Amino acid sequence: MKLSIINKFVFGFLIIFCIGYVIMTCLINNMIVENNRVIVRSSLKTYQRDLSLYLKEYFNINELEMNETNIQADPAKIASELALRANNRIILYSADGEFLSDSANVEGRIIYFEGYDKANVKSKNKGMDSINFRQEGDSDINLAINNKSSFIIVPYGDKYIVAFSCPIIVNNERIGIFRITKDYSEIIKSSMDLLGLINKSIIFVFGAIFTFIILLSRKLTVPIVKLSKASKEIAMGNFDTEINIISNDEIGNLSKDFNIMKDKLEQQINVIKTDRDRLQKLEGFRKAFFDNVTHEMKTPLTIISGYTQIIFNKGFDDKVFIKKSIYKIKSECDRLHNMVLNLLEVSKAESDISSHALEIIDLSDLLENACDDMRIKADKYKSIITKEIQDDVNIYGNKAALRSLIINLIDNALKHSGIQISVKITLFEDSEHCVLKVEDNGKGIAQEKLCKIFDRFYKADTFLLVDKESSGLGLSIVKQIVNKHKGEIKINSEQGLGTEVVVRIPLNI
Length: 509
Fold this sequence. Notes:
Heat Shock Protein 90, Helix Hairpins, 3 domains, 5-stranded mixed β-sheet, alpha+beta, 509 residues, 5-stranded antiparallel β-sheet
């Protein structure tokens, strides 16, 4: 059976209390009893000395020899004289312990005054001579027969009678025994009352300590129970658990430290989850990327290999076909070269933007220059570029990456929208962002294809491409640059009406 800490405190204290109470009670009781014995013994020694003197005076006054015969000759008179001098009850016995006389005339019965009478005494001792009657438990008389003084305490009701017996010794010879009875009820009852008070005090003190220990153990165990439950909740992934223990001590500090640990643990787990998701997503991208690269490179390499094998065949001398083959091989080589350059751009865009120089950039001026540079390509496709650029639009970013973003957007609009189209470039500030729009009036993109438009090597409508060497990496590069600048990009398109690309970038990253 598993016991809680508070139960261990309770059971342990109860065991200690019981053992301690018994030991303390026994010790105190023995001390009080021993103290009472000292008081009684001291008092009765005085009686013994005085009675010995009174007895000598009695025999001297009556000019009698002090011996057993004279004591047994008139024991009643001797008992009466001694009782009168000692102001107490005197009982005389022979040297052999046989009853001789009682100054109270009750045949030596100690508890006679406590409700017994002679009739009761005799009725309980039929067949026995009242003179030879001995009270059961008269151990003091037995010791006196052996020349030893002693006393016994006889309890009766709420009374405590002390019977003291001592031998009468003359010339080293016992000639009789006298017995004194005295009521010590007041002293003994006072001692018992004191013992009761001490017991109550002990119980009260232990009770107060017990209550304090219970309260203290609850103060210690309740937070531990809460921490245990909270730990189990956290182990199950529930980080909403809070420990609120108001205490200006180590328990309160432990509660605060636990909450701090829980928050730190939650942050670390969230970081781990985020990193895991990013790694899984990156792994997926890498696999798709290499699959696409393999696929895209396979086609030109196959064409190059095919034409090369034909040219090197023995006996082949068709100069027209050879010239065509050389042109095709060069075209495919250029395509591979452009693909490698675009892959380098993708790799560069995926790198951390913080590793490059960040600076305040006049995006208006950068866009003006990029548009001027792209006019040559627009003229090639018999298209025009118009622009509405707000002056002095400054943002904090990477100049080379942003120029690549602009070039790719304009190039993509020119290549994928057909010939003789119009491309409109717009730039303005909107609250805390700058907004760049690239619009064309080309053929547009089907809605079902927009969800894949940022995938690497994806080409929405290859039959509309003016430049057949497009690798399908342009918008993927743009997306990476926008993300690195903590911006967002959105494409709106409708077939037959054209396409609008909207880029929003914070003025300060």
